[in-house]
Structure prediction request, 240 residues.
Amino acid sequence: MSVAALSNFDLPQFVNTLVSLGTAFVLGTLIGAERQWRQRNAGLRTAVLVAVGAAAFVDIGMRLNGNASAVHVLAYVVSGVGFLGAGVIMKEGLNIRGLNTAATLWGAAAMGGAAGADLIGEAVTIAVFVLMANTALRPLVDLINRQPLDEATTEATYEVRVTVTAEEMPVVRAAVLDQLDAKSYAVRGTTVDEQAEETLDLAVTLAGSSARPTELDEIVARVERLPGVEHAGWTMRTAD
Prediction:
């Protein structure tokens, strides 16, 4: 052990560091245990390491250069945890998983930063709110998700899709746009993809975020009766 290391050792400051890291460890364990119980990608150990790491960086910054240094370190902790959280987010088809776990890690880092800055009461408060968001709000989320979806008021992306022969495509496309215009639906854009040798798939995306299913059903029914149309329908994707 070097002389510098011995001279830099300060027992009261060391005890203060133990309190900060210990607080981050205990609270991080509580946050991580909930994620581990639900078998999430980032569980107990990840939450604890994020919390303790954030507390350690902030504590070191305060020891070296006071509160000003701690503020700078906190800024880097926020951005660093953002990259870490991106690693637990996965896309499976149209579904995205891990957003809540990534946000939980962000909350664990905030709690750890508060603990490292000797704001123990604030660290406990942050941990309580993170746990409440993941547990107390779950029944409310389930209740909302069980409610019937109202297509007329839900913000979403609507598409009218038509499978038509290449020969009749110009006429059918014009007819679809006329039908939508008659119902006062603005069009964001249209795309045409080749499905078979003589068959094309027309997709018309509406500009509005809400539509009436009955009106779209009427439009599709009329379009399906046009010459050359093999199939017509409409789809709705809820906003991200």
